[in-house]
Design a protein that fits this description.
The structure holds three protein chains of three kinds. Chain A is mainly α. In chain A, the strands form two sheets. Chain A has a two-stranded antiparallel ribbon with strand order 1-2. A two-stranded antiparallel ribbon of chain A has the order 3-4. Chain B has a domain of 89 residues. Chain B is built from six helices and no strands. Chain B starts with a helix and ends with a helix. Chain C is mainly alpha-helical. Chain C is 78% helix and 0% strand. Chain C is extended, with a radius of gyration of 23 Å. The chains are: A mainly alpha, B mainly alpha, C mainly alpha. Chains in contact: A-B, A-C, B-C. The interface between B and C is large, with 70 and 73 residues.
Chain lengths: 250, 162, 231
């Protein structure tokens, strides 16, 4: 067979990128500068999530918050109306509470991925998952205002998949790699800066933050309070992580 | 004036438009830069039509997989396919030549198998999707799973007929 | 370098991809600007959802311009993310309209769009046993293809004649089982990473998981088709 001859020259490709231990233990200049020493990494072949003291603190926060939300019951909201002599209590139905709890846990898992991942395409996917599970928390509410705000947020999600994945692809084309371990050692240039700007816009949109994000204010008027707080946590974590990522890429 | 501006921003309708506008500005500014592709990419592809020309010359049966022939024999540690991945792993290149019996038969009689995905597990794309970048595929299906859960829940409990 | 290896996996990206890259990026930017301008100018919400597809094409163009096997593999997740988002967002739009109309006091069911499926003789007269055969064949195939074949079997069952034996709740529970199947698929993956010697077990776990998952998704679609419109 011809293939037998083809495998001889494999050494040609054994450049510096291929040695895992070299990259993840010694040559992590930018990541080590920003986050401190790497405590551990999980080599899923090309995608290597890693943990530093900084991301360990973030993971601890997310886990604590998610566990608290997962075991809590939905709020009872007292409603008094003018000219009525009764205080009515409102809460979400049981089925909906269960669904929202599931989406909250999914969002927590996605956030753990966001803060630990070591690959920018993987980061983009985790941020998208955060966005979709955030929408899921609001999908069951029977309120036109909230649904309208959730719909506009969904439109932003769809628009922002362009800057998110486009920015990643520009960086891939310019540097030839997606791994943060390698990207942390490369110098920045103009194209990478465009990619970083696009990544920032994309993460801002998908993570539901943005200083002028009116939809968020509309959405948190929904009832069923504890699960909705996941949205604020996701904004915070996605924003922290994207800043860290931009510093590593730069 | 400023108050009117803020009132406009408070309307959820405006938010997607603002995002769209910002992205347009960034993209138009980036048009002035010179985009160029780095030569040293991971998982490179041969130039278009090269493999199909070789397949027509009948040099080797594996070229009938054109343009996805990456060498090697299926699940054979001594004859692995050539995969230029980011980090080295001893199990890479195992399935770049793996085909189902039906696909093997198709490969034997035609050199257009690479253009179809009929019953075709294995190959370079599956190697990347399911092995070297497997976490991406898990996530991708998780996203689809979350979307299906939300959509089916909304249909079953809100908009569908009960 | 040996021309033979160059034809299989070249050491560097061929010149033709490098020449085409700036052109592809400029086309992608023009596409993106067109789509985004459409979103700024569009009046109706439904129109916006349609126009966002143009933006998604621009995203796929930027990824595809890299022109390696990796880029080809990255297109699939990008496409799936945009598909998932459009699914959720359009469901929320429908839910919003239904809520708005029931708040106004109208009956939302009456305002639903008319759906006229093509009347195909073969769907009504096909043997129900066809679906059993298809599901069994799909289970043997396993994997994504198998799931599609088995799902087609469930669709045939739902379309042929009357629904027998399975209630609305049954299908709702099936959605839950789909989640369990997905977990099975995930565990298969993890096993493959942690201990590649067990690849056969992992393969069967993943293949079995995805066959159930895809089949049930198609079944759900068929159920919705019956539930909502065929009365």
């Amino acid at each position: 067979m011809e293939e037998r001859n083809l495998t001889i020259d494999l050494d040609l490709f054994d450049n510096i990128y291929r040695n895992l231990s070299v990259i993840w233990c010694i040559k992590m200049n930018d990541i080590v500068d920003i986050n401190g020493l790497i405590i551990g990494h999980f080599p899923f072949v090309d995608i290597v999530p890693y943990i530093t003291p900084f991301s360990l603190a973030l993971v601890a926060t997310i886990v604590t918050f998610t566990v608290f939300l997962a075991i809590s019951n939905p709020e009872y909201r007292s409603i008094t109306r003018f000219k009525e002599d009764v205080v009515r209590k409102e809460t979400v139905e049981k089925k909906e509470a269960r669904f929202r709890r599931f989406m909250t846990i999914l969002c927590g898992v996605a956030l753990i991925g966001v803060v630990t991942t070591g690959d920018i395409f993987n980061f983009a996917l985790f941020v998208s998952l955060t966005g979709i599970s955030n929408i899921g928390i609001f999908a069951g509410i029977k309120d036109t205002h909230v649904l309208d705000a959730a719909f506009q947020y969904g439109l932003v999600l769809m628009i922002c998949s362009l800057p998110l994945f486009g920015g990643v692809a520009l960086i891939l084309a310019n540097t030839g790699t997606l791994s943060l371990g390698v990207l942390g050692n490369l110098p920045s240039n103009q194209i990478i800066n465009v990619g970083r700007t696009l990544l920032l816009i994309g993460a801002v949109g998908e993570g539901a933050l943005a200083p002028f994000f009116a939809t968020k204010v509309e959405m948190i008027r929904a009832k069923g309070a504890p699960f909705i707080n996941m949205m604020h946590l996701s904004s915070l974590m996605v924003f922290t992580r994207i800043i860290e990522l931009l510093l590593i890429l730069g | 004036m400023i108050g009117r501006l803020f009132n406009k921003l408070a309307n959820p309708d405006q938010v997607p438009k603002i995002f769209a506008f910002v992205i347009i500005v960034v993209l138009l500014f980036s048009l002035t830069l010179s985009f160029e592709l780095n030569q040293n990419q991971l998982y490179p592809k041969p130039a278009p039509q090269v493999q199909i020309e070789l397949a027509k010359k009948n040099i080797d049966i594996s070229y009938n997989l054109a343009p996805y022939n990456r060498g090697g024999l299926p699940l054979d540690p001594n004859n692995k396919g050539i995969v230029k991945s980011q980090y080295y792993t001893p199990y890479e290149g195992w399935i770049t030549a793996y085909l189902t019996p039906f696909s093997e038969w198709l490969r034997d009689i035609s050199y257009h198998l690479g253009t179809t995905i009929v019953a075709h597990p294995g190959g370079i794309l599956d190697e990347i999707l399911y092995y070297t970048r497997g976490l991406d595929t898990i996530l991708e299906s998780t996203i689809l799973f979350a979307a299906f859960t939300i959509a089916s829940w909304v249909i079953l409990n809100r908009t569908g007929k009960k | 370098m040996d021309p033979m290896i160059d034809a299989v996996v070249p050491a560097v990206v061929p010149q033709i991809f490098i020449n085409m890259y700036p052109v592809a990026i400029i086309i992608a930017i023009i596409t993106a600007v067109t789509g985004l301008l459409g979103i700024i100018l569009a009046k109706s919400d439904f129109q916006k959802i349609l126009l966002i597809q143009v933006v998604t094409y621009a995203m796929l163009l930027i990824v595809a311009a890299v022109g390696t096997d990796l880029a080809e593999a990255l297109i699939l997740p990008g496409l799936v993310v945009s598909l998932a988002e459009i699914l959720v967002v359009s469901e929320i739009l429908i839910s919003r309209e239904v809520t708005r109309r029931s708040e106004k006091g109208e009956d939302p069911r009456k305002l639903k769009l008319k759906f006229n499926p093509i009347k195909m003789e073969v769907i009504k007269t096909a043997l129900p046993v066809t679906s059993v055969v298809t599901v069994l064949y799909g289970a043997i195939l396993t994997g994504f293809t198998g799931g599609a074949v088995a799902g087609a079997g469930i669709l045939i069952y739902l379309f042929v004649g009357k629904l027998r034996g399975f209630s609305h709740n049954f299908w709702e529970e099936m959605v839950g089982i789909s989640g369990v199947a997905w977990v099975l698929w995930l565990l298969g993956f993890l096993l493959y990473f942690l201990n590649p010697q067990l690849w056969l077990v992992a393969l069967f776990m993943s293949g079995g998981g995805i066959v159930i998952k895809v089949a049930l998704k198609l079944g759900l679609l068929g159920m919705l088709g019956r539930e909502e419109f065929n009365n």
